[in-house]
Design a protein that fits this description.
293 residues; two-stranded parallel sheet; 4 strands; globular
């Protein structure tokens, strides 16, 4: 409903009143009517992942031949009858260049520290391949490499290959293994356990929204803070949460900034929610509500 209202405002310049449309179907009708008054238009829907989103956010019906809808998605058959243009993955060299750049590994400095070594390092190609040549996984893996420092060539790959769900009898995806490696890299930090607890708390947050740092501080206090931490000075606790949040941003596990708000890539949010059963997720939501009350 919120996304429909936002799209309606973009199309018409005015808000969608509740009395005009009480459910998704009525709002869909308003979107179609808004497009009917437009001249030839191109509408872009970026990164939908559910058929319901396509159905309720598409304001173009079969009678509006002058308009075009462009959908960008990672899901192959989300729009079965659409004309499809598949973009290739990054090439190996391009993926390695991105990995090394984000990890702040400079060619001249690396060759100076490793006389006779080849550039780019073969380990970078192996890590990039393990990441599936995907930008989001390469970004997280690069921060693991950066935070590890000396010895990353042999230390990072085993982390990426560790099956996070092996004990549960499941096979983890590339994305899940890379995110898991990013979390393991936090163990080197003295507050690593608390930082990971803060990260897991984001499973209860909403999709497609930036969260003000004040909300994150409140969630931490409601969900994760010990009695001792609750009795600490409020400024001390707030500074800790801000530092931990920034550490997660630095590791590319969270996105955004303290000033503009914090959000998650949908793959990361899916990772967090997948580790919880439906009942466990409901229990986490109850814990948030009870903690705030």
């Amino acid at each position: 409903l919120a996304l429909q209202a936002m799209l309606y405002k973009q199309l018409t310049g005015k808000g969608m009143q509740d009395e005009e449309a009480k459910d998704e179907h009525e709002r869909q009708g308003l979107l179609v009517a808004a497009m009917a008054g437009k001249q030839r238009s191109l509408l872009v829907l970026d990164d939908p992942w559910m058929p319901e989103q396509m159905r309720f956010l598409n304001p173009i019906d079969s009678s509006q031949a002058q308009h075009r809808l462009l959908v960008t998605t990672r899901i192959r058959d989300l729009v079965p009858k659409a004309t499809r243009l598949e973009l290739p993955l990054m090439g190996k060299d391009e993926a390695v260049a991105l990995l090394l750049d984000l990890a702040n590994i400079d060619e001249a400095e690396y060759l100076k520290e490793h006389p006779g070594a080849v550039w780019p390092p073969q380990a970078a190609y192996t890590i990039a391949a393990e990441c599936g040549l995907l930008p989001i996984t390469l970004t997280i893996a690069a921060q693991v490499v950066r935070s590890w420092g000396d010895g990353w060539q042999t230390a990072v790959l085993p982390l990426l290959r560790e099956d996070q769900d092996s004990e549960k009898g499941k096979t983890s995806t590339v994305e899940e293994r890379v995110i898991g490696a990013g979390l393991k890299a936090l163990d080197k930090h003295e507050d690593g356990a608390a930082v990971k607890e803060l990260f897991h708390m984001f499973a209860v947050t909403r999709e497609d929204g930036a969260h003000p740092i004040a909300v994150i501080e409140l969630l931490w206090r409601a969900c994760c803070a010990s009695d001792a931490e609750k009795h600490e000075g409020s400024l001390t606790a707030r500074l800790k949460v801000r530092q931990w949040t920034q550490l997660l941003v630095d590791h590319s596990l969270l996105l955004g900034s303290s000033s503009e708000g914090i959000h998650l890539h949908d793959i990361v949010l899916q990772y967090l929610r997948k580790r919880l059963s439906a009942e466990e997720l409901r229990a986490e939501h109850r814990r948030v509500v009870e903690g705030m009350m």
